[in-house]
Amino acid sequence: MSRKRIDKGLVQIYTGNGKGKTTASLGLALRAMGHGYKVFMLQFMKGSKEYGELQAAEKYLPNLIIVQSGLETFVSKENPSQADIELARQGLETAKKVITEGHYDVVILDEINVALDFNLIDLDEVIEMVKNKPERLELILTGRYVPSKLAEYADLISEVSLVKHPYYKGVPARKGIEF
Ligand code: ATP
Ligand code: MG
User: Hey, which of 13, 15, 22 would you mutate to test ligand 1's pocket, going by the most ligand atoms within 8 Å of its Cβ?
Assistant: First the structure.
C-alpha cells in the first residue's frame, strides 16, 4: 500500500536578515518526518561537510536527504566564479528533477533566494518550477533577499529580522549552533 501523502502542499518562504531560516526549515523537516513524510533538502551555495544537519541526516535520518550544490568558499556577489554559477545551475536542475519525480513530500531549497539575488540562477526558471510543483508537495524556499516577483507565488512568507546577533560582539560561528 502506498504511504500517506500531504493533501495540499503549499509554498513557503523563510527570508530576512536574522538567524533562523535554514534551521526553521530543518525544524519543519523534523516535524514532517515524524508523520512519515520524506524530505529532500538542496543547499545552494554551500559545500562544507561541516554542517551538523548533513551529518545528522546521514547518521540518523533516512527520510531526510541533503544534497549540496556549491563550493566551500563564500560566493562573491559582484564576481562569482564560473564554478559557483555552474554548481548553482546544476542545483536547480536537480531541484526540478526531484520536484517533478514526486518521491518527496517536502522539498527545501536552502539559500535559493540568495542564489537568485546573486544572479547565479534565472528567476523566471525558478518561478516556472514553483508554479508547476505537484499538488501534494510542500515547497520551502529559504534565504535572505527573496525577489519580490518570486514572493508573489508563496502561500506563506516568514521574515526573520536581526534584532541581536552575537557575531556583532565578536562571537565567531559556533559548531552545532551556526553550522
Ligand atoms: P541558521 O542556518 O542558523 O538558521 P539562517 O539560515 O537564518 O541561519 P543565513 O542568512 O543563511 O542564516 O546565514 C548563514 C550563517 O550565518 C548561519 O550560520 C547563521 O547562523 C549565521 N547568521 C545568520 N544571521 C546572521 C547575522 N545577522 N550576522 C551574522 N551571522 C548570521
Ligand atoms: Mg540559511
Answer: 22
Segment (H or E) for 106: strand 106-110
Location of C-alpha cell 541526516 = 57
Ligand nearest to the CA of 110: 2
CA 108: distance to chain centroid? 4
Q: Please work out whether the CB of residue 96 comes within 6 Å of at least one atom of ligand 1.
A: no
The verdict on the CB of residue 179 being under 6 Å from ligand 1 is yes
Tens-digit pLDDT profile for residues 23-63: 999 999 999 999 999 999 999 999 999 999 999 999 999 99
Buried b (16+ CB within 10 A) or exposed e, 150-173: beebbeeeeebeeeeeeeeeeeee
User: DSSP state, 167?
Assistant: G
User: Does the CB atom of residue 145 touch ligand 1 within 6 A?
Assistant: no
**Which domains does the chain show, CATH number per domain?**
11-169 (3.40.50.300)
Residue type, 109: L
- Cβ(71)–Cβ(83) below 8 Å: yes
- 107 DSSP 8-state letter: E
Q: Report the separation in Å between the CA atom of 142 and the middle of ligand 1, taken as the mean of its atom positions.
A: 11
